[in-house]
């Protein structure tokens, strides 16, 4: 009887848990974003916005009415990107965070036709493109929903989200390194002020549920 009751109790109180992986170049704003998401889901809480470059990982589980989201924030520095792939097979969604102030005008066709990569004009656009392509091409990310966040939209010198969508994300997806078909979206946000963070979380929650036949959740 005890075991039956315990089983019913556990069944009634358990929820599906989905894992979300935050990726992007160093300084893109991944840790700041995680802090905002944590603060928004805590009863009392101010985000800790004094981040330092991540070496290793930060992980946090947030509780939503119908599910848990376990969010993995990994270091984006060049030397740490090799570690990302060990998270791919078990994640249910990927967020690719872009620093919208460090990608020139966000137009990869112009970058390609310019020949030389002139840093001051294109910022880290080329690096950002190669890193995103690597993620999309990896077999373990096949079919995983991908949210691209055009971060730092609070800054005056940012590239607006439509340009990032048209000039960068769409072109990468349509290119030969665009990888498999997947659910994807580009949204603006400011991890620093919190603008757009809620919309991002909503999108992630809906997509991990839609995709759960391909990537089933863990019961917790
Ligand atoms: N203005 C502005 N600054 C931001 C925003 N998001 C992050 N930053 C700043 O960008 C810097 C880097 O932010 P982090 O969150 O540490 O970046 P990260 O992607 O975690 O970097 P790594 O851990 O090295 O991969 C910090 O100085 C943040 O305050 C934003 O939306 N707007
Ligand atoms: Mg970080």
From TrEMBL:
Residues annotated for Mg(2+) binding in this entry: 31, 54
Gene Ontology MF terms in the entry: GTP binding; GTPase activity; metal ion binding
PROSITE patterns (UniProt xref): ARF (PS51417)
Binding site for GTP: 24-31, 76, 151-154
GO biological process, one term: protein localization to Golgi apparatus
Pfam families noted in UniProt: Arf
GO cellular component: Golgi apparatus
Record keywords: GTP-binding, Hydrolase, Magnesium, Metal-binding, Nucleotide-binding
Top-level taxon: Eukaryota
The protein, known as: P-loop containing nucleoside triphosphate hydrolase protein
Upper taxonomic lineage: Eukaryota, Fungi, Dikarya, Ascomycota, Pezizomycotina
